[in-house]
Amino acid sequence: MKKPELLAPAGSFEKAKVAFEYGADSVYCGTSKLSLRSRVEIDDTELEKIIKYAHSINKKVYVPLNIYARDYMYDEVKEQIKMLDRIKADGVIVSDGGVVDAVKELAPDLPIHISTQANTVSYHTSKFWYNNGAKRIILARELNKEEIKEIMKNKPEDLEIEMFIHGAICYGYSGRCHLSDFLAGRCANLGDCAQSCRWAYNLYLEEKNNPGLMMPVEQDEYGTYILSSKDMCLIKELPEVIQMGVDSLKIEGRLKTEYYLATIINTYRAAIDDYMNDPENYNYTKYLDELEKTKTRGLTTFYFNDKNNRDFQEYEGKQYNPNFEFGGKVQEFNKEKSIIEIKNRLQIGDKLELLIPDKIEPYKFIIDKLWDAETDEPIEFVNPGKEGQKVKLHIPVEAKQNWILRRQKN
User: Fold this and answer.
1) Residue 114 in contact with residue 136, Cβ under 8 Å?
2) Mind listing the pLDDT tens digit of every residue in the chain (410 residues)?
3) Handedness of CA 101, 103, 108, 110 (dihedral sign)
4) Strands of the 404-408 sheet, one edge to the other
């Protein structure tokens, strides 16, 4: 079997470091203007910093340039392409044929990855993109496993295939949605999605003989979140995915927290490695238990197993975890007093879990001592305040910078 690449999102330099620390082989991160996550503010300087850091540890960085570009945008598109070529990005993710042509013209050595936005659902389309310069295809999320197998069997031998295995599902087909533009004047395909599918809606019927008489439509107490989808999770199906020979397995979430990234990446890293080492004894349940400790919606396999599956709507519209939350991040380890950047309230007696790279089981301990980070005075609790607020606490085992602490709520 071929070991697939584990590809993770990175919305900042700090998130990229966390992703690599917890086992990602590569990350994808875009500039704020020309990718489909315009709220991720990575400027050219920070992007170059991420790429240099990644290359120093033999990792890769792919950069989305996957908007559907209007004509007036092409001057900026071309400047971005030349910049990505200069800073040696490992690939550019595109969906627009015009942008593909621009990459081929301006940066012929820059590998082209065709975005899931391009809606590739067949080996015929895969061959088309391959013939037009693509090195990799990111498959549409709407495919089932039989369709993916057919593509793998018939694609050009040196064409790489990437697929999503975990993360949010877009209401629009292959992410091509007009709802945000219609309701909020923010175009999803220009990177400014307002996530209108996650909003709560009130529906009404009007009786035709009584104009203006509006009667609410209610399915049940959760029936207003009719557009919101669950999150994809293929941890149980991971052996089938690996057996298909897919080159890269992608996690969604450039806007997610470092805690979310550490948990998801570390879990899939362990699952992939464990399966490759001992495929006969793969047991998905322990990995699923770990994934469910993050702030998330319900989980679904979407269409992977069954094209007729309808169990992927999140009618509760919620995204939280009642049992766990982001406790903090290790800034500096010391046997007696480690410096922690806090993310939520911490107090003596709290149960914490230290997420350890390459281990599926976190190290569990109880806070027995806390000190003010500036005065070094003993304290009973600390509340998050200013950005980057720190506290000192005792961690019973050796930890490293950027390791994540999870707090048990009850």
Assistant:
1) yes
2) 899 999 999 989 999 999 999 999 999 998 756 665 555 568 889 999 999 999 999 999 999 999 899 999 999 999 999 999 999 999 999 999 999 999 999 999 999 999 999 999 999 999 999 999 999 999 999 999 999 999 999 999 999 999 999 998 877 767 767 777 767 878 776 667 887 777 777 777 777 788 877 766 665 555 567 777 889 999 999 999 999 999 999 999 888 899 999 999 999 999 999 999 999 999 999 999 999 999 778 899 999 999 888 788 777 766 678 899 999 999 999 999 999 999 999 999 999 999 999 999 999 999 999 999 999 999 999 998 777 899 999 999 999 999 999 999 97
3) negative
4) 363-366, 351-355, 404-408, 324-332, 338-342, 390-393, 370-372
Q: Which residue has the tokens 């088309």?
A: 128
Q: CA nearest 236: which of 283, 167, 302?
A: 283
140 torsion bin: left (phi>0), alpha (psi -120 to 50), beta (else)? beta
Distances (CA, A) of 384 to 180, 324, 344, 370, 381: 33, 16, 6, 14, 10
d(CA 264, CA 260): 6
Per DSSP, 217 falls in state: E
Nearest of 341, 332, 394 to residue 369 by alpha carbon: 394
Under 8 Å CB-to-CB from 362, ≥6 apart: which residues? 353, 354, 355, 356, 406
Element (H, E) at 289: helix 285-291
Give per-residue burial for 175-186: e unless 16+ CB within 10 Å, then b. bebebbbeeeeb
Distances (CA, A) of 364 to 121, 189, 396: 44, 43, 9
Calculate the alpha carbon distances from 13 to 18, 272, 314 in Å: 9, 25, 32
User: For residue 338, which phi and psi values (nearest 5 degrees)?
Assistant: -85, 145
CA terminus-to-terminus distance, the chain: 42
CB 312 within 8 A of CB 229: yes
